[in-house]
Amino acid sequence: MASLAEIRARLQSAESNKGGQSSGGDNAIYPHWNMDEGANATVRFLPDANPKNTFFWVERAMIKLPFNGIKGEMDSKQVQVQVPCVEMWGDACPILAEVRTWFKDKSLEDMGRKYWKKRSYIFQGFVRENPIGDDKTPENPIRRFIIGPQIFNIIKGALMDPELEEIPTDLLRGLDFRITKTSKGGYADYSTSKWARKESALSETEQAALESHGLFELASFLPKKPGEVELRVMKEMFEASVDGKPYDTERWGQYFRPAGVQAPASSSGNHADVSEDAPVSKPVVNNNDAPFDTDDTPAPTAPIQAAKPSGGQNAQDILAMIRSRQKA
């Protein structure tokens, strides 16, 4: 387990570098976003089973691709596919390579944010106080937490506080974390979440669960790293999404699928639905609680003054504008 000093050093290093740059299906995941407004959940984070991970979390970056229904299905509603951003593994992302250029044009910024990567962070630990009445603790009470940037920044900020003497995941002298859900502007707000002030030890029941089940290796819950074929499929899906086309199950279903959509019969079944592990945020006020954010969208540089379109600007016009500019 990494020490508090090592965590602080890594966080400080990450901030310095940043400043210099232009399995689902069960109830192992604790859905804090389902809490009622005004409710509080108390959780106790645990370390990663991987001793090489300095932190007690792993970062996940996903890109959401919306489609106008499913090809061949009548009255199909809009669906969404999540694909992994390969920047998680330090590689160049073919989707973001194109999207980054959109932020140079004011008229394309909103479109850029729509297709920008969404970060979330995977933790594990115990739920000590649970306000969600219909949430049942699984046989293994060590839950996973998918934490968005708003809560994560609170967690990270406290770790850098010099008055914090012990790492919060210490089994005997650790700290609980209280997730508080309020609302702001019609959306869920977790800005009043905070660490407990008093240290506490794990209970005998929690220690027994830890001995019985062991810790998870958090990286095992990240999506599989895409290979060359998957990267080509992701780029093709991205272009189809921007073009306003429907999702093609026969063409892409063996690689990436919307939640609830089965793989085509010819599929080898090797590619799991990467959308299962977290809720899909919906463009409905008061229902946008999924733990994702676009906090790291690039600031526009050297903006290009583009003529404002008359009427609405559709996806085909936007894609044509982008590609004509790239060829120029």
List the helices and strands and how they pair.
Blueprint (H helix, E strand, L loop, with lengths): L3 H16 L20 E6 L12 E10 L11 E6 L9 H9 L6 H7 L2 E12 L13 E5 L1 H11 L17 E4 L1 E3 L2 E3 L4 E2 L8 H10 L14 H15 L6 H4 L62 H13 L1
Antiparallel strand pairs: 1-4, 1-6, 2-3, 2-4, 4-5, 6-9, 7-8
Helix pairs in contact: 2-3
Produce a short descriptive summary.
The chain is of the alpha+beta class and 328 residues long. It has 8 helices and 9 strands.
Structure description:
- The strands form 2 sheets. Strands 1, 2, 3, 4, 5, 6 and 9 form a 7-stranded antiparallel sheet that branches.
- α2 runs antiparallel to α3 (109-115).
- The chain is an alpha+beta fold and 328 residues long.
- A hairpin with a 2-residue loop joins β7 (182-184) and β8 (187-189).
- It has 8 helices and 9 strands.
- It has helices spanning 4-19, 94-102, 109-115, 149-159, 204-213, 228-242, 249-252, 315-327, and strands spanning 40-45, 58-67, 79-84, 118-129, 143-147, 177-180, 182-184, 187-189, 194-195.
- It has one domain (4-300): Replication Fork Single-Stranded DNA Binding Protein.
- The model is unreliable at 18-25, 269-290 and 300-313 (pLDDT under 50).
Which structural class should the secondary elements be placed in?
A: alpha+beta
Number of domains: 1
Mean pLDDT: 82
Order of helices and strands: HEEEHHEEHEEEEHHHH
